[in-house]
Design a protein that fits this description.
Layout: H1 2-16, E1 36-39, E2 44-46, E3 55-59, H2 65-72, H3 75-85, E4 89-94, H4 106-115, E5 122-125, H5 130-134, E6 139-140, E7 142-146, E8 152-156, H6 175-184, E9 199-200
Parallel strand pairs: 3-4, 4-5
Antiparallel strand pairs: 1-2, 1-5, 3-7, 6-9, 7-8
């Protein structure tokens, strides 16, 4: 019985992590792609609104085991609170298309923020995938750090251990925190680009 359950779980993870189509990612050090989208309150949000502030983008899919790892452990929420507390703007982006895994209505997005005690500055609903494809987002969670001058400082994984195990979080190097701290100190980001791990972004 245990063997069958393990096989089923492995199969589910395999489906979840299926490779996403490749979209050309912008380059580190270049201008971050401009975007405008609607948030979960129906408000228009543009990257240009946050010129002069460090911006963190987080691609999410609440049904993805790798996203669940970081939320059920409280790791993602703690990082959101830590960095927004230091003045960053944190934008959670949902690029799952209607009918695809992880797609949410505005009401569901707001319920998830509340029930998980999440603390993003805003949640952007990117149903047509325009923002995700502009950034070459392929996985959830996938992270981007943008400087106050709106150039790309970091793109890739949240941390250095690509697993769905909560026990790996304390052992991993958190690339997002390191990138934010380097930008805040006016120093180069030592690890500026990595391969994001997790579930494929569920574009249309």
């Amino acid at each position: 019985m245990i063997g069958r359950l393990s096989a089923a779980l492995a199969g589910g993870l395999a489906l979840c992590v299926m490779a996403a189509p490749a979209y050309a990612a912008p380059e580190i050090g270049q201008k971050a792609p401009a975007f405008t989208g609607k948030d979960a309150a129906g408000k228009t949000v543009s990257l240009s609104d946050y010129a002069g502030k460090t911006v963190v983008l987080e691609w999410t899919n609440h049904e993805c085991p790798f996203v669940v790892k970081h939320y059920d452990s409280g790791n993602m929420q703690a990082l959101q609170k830590e960095l927004t507390g230091k003045g960053a703007v944190w934008l959670t982006v949902v690029s799952s298309a209607p009918g695809k895994q992880g797609h949410v209505s505005a009401a569901k997005a707001n319920e998830l923020t509340k029930s998980r005690n999440a603390a993003p500055s805003d949640v952007i609903l990117d149903e047509d995938g325009t923002i995700g494809m502009a950034y070459g987002a392929t996985a959830t969670p996938q992270m981007v750090v943008i400087t106050p001058a709106q150039t790309l400082a970091y793109m890739g994984a949240i941390d250095s251990i690509p697993s769905a195990k909560q026990s790996d979080i304390p052992k991993a190097d958190n690339y997002v925190r390191a990138a934010y701290d380097a930008v805040a100190a006016g120093k180069p980001v030592q690890v500026a680009q990595t391969k994001a791990y997790g579930c494929s972004v569920k574009y249309q």
